[in-house]
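Troubleshooting entry. Yesterday's outputs looked truncated, so today I'm pasting the complete records for two proteins to confirm everything comes through intact. If either block looks cut off, that's the bug. Protein one:
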Amino acid sequence: MDLEKQITELVMNAVQETTKKIVGEKLEQDIFPTIKKRITEEFGYLPQIHAVRVNNAKAVKIKETLPPCFDSILKYAANGNPVMMTGEAGTGKGFIARNVAKALEAGFYEVNAVKNSYDLTGFVDAHSRYNQTPFYNACKDASEGRKAVFLFDEMDCSEPEVLKIFNEAISSLEFTFPNNEKLEFPNLIILCACNTFGTGNDEQYVGERLDASTLDRFVMVKVDYNRKVEVALAQGDEALVDFIDAFRNQVEKNGLLFVVSYRSLKRITSMKGILPLKQVIKECLIKSMSDDDLESVLINIKGMEKNIYYRAAKGENVSVPTGKAGK
């Protein structure tokens, strides 16, 4: 199937170049989207292939649709700058971090919302065995000259004592672990992901206030929802993306504390055509939203009366046409 998609992608590129030569650039801009849509309907959505080159290293190919902020995050990280990615839940911060590791051909290690210091540093058990952690393994790799990326996900949801230990470690780029092993890791690539901006709780997210010295150690990059990423996650179904974007925007306008993330989009994409669409939208998107809030959101979304996902959200029995988007 991968070979079929690669061949299809080459054909699409050739068709676009040939179309441009025959009809000119202006007409090509009008015609090619129709051709591309038709091929997508027949063969499925084709992800982009990025040739990523960092500094003078060899180019690495990544077969993913990446948001515009990826290049900045990659360049900061590759040049020794810890990066704090901020943004709403489900905007793909972990996805970005994993692809930074791919681009740098580095090992990838991750922890999530650490509540106890030993989950970060490890511990020696009653049998004198040291229990390792992703942070230890990342530091170990870096100390021995191997490339490593460490992601502290949901850093702002971790306990203050854990943050203090982590801050001290990245300040000196060395740490003595509970097994009495002192590791120095000046080349460890450090990323963190936060739903808040390090300033504590806001209306939607709970987060610890990060002290000024911690914030000062990071470059802060905002990660937003991106349509190209959404279309890739929806396997080219732009009608679904149109509805998700409109739903999210109206939720925000209504001031509702409700997350409409990439995760919802992926779940709907994976289940449409398998379960009734009305059920999928209810269980993957609407979830616990009250009937009154849902009605208020839907009544203010304009121009989507024919969109099947909008209709399914209203409770209509609709289905996705086989092999086609939902318009």
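Protein two, checking that the full record survives here as well:
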Amino acid sequence: METADLLKLFGLNHKDALAYLALLRLQKASPHQVAKEARLERTTVYKIMEELAAKGLAIKRAVG
């Protein structure tokens, strides 16, 4: 079983899991960077990142 599949057991869908794993690899990244790493659409990743932050799996930081 792949890691992305294991994360589904914790309530993440496939795209959520891909984005989460990409974020873990990158450590600090913008949604654009996560989208590129995960091979997902940038607009999809913005929504996923919000959901991950709401679940406590990511921290949202303002740039500037």
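Both blocks look complete. Sanity check on protein two: Residues 1 and 59 are 28 Å apart (CA to CA).
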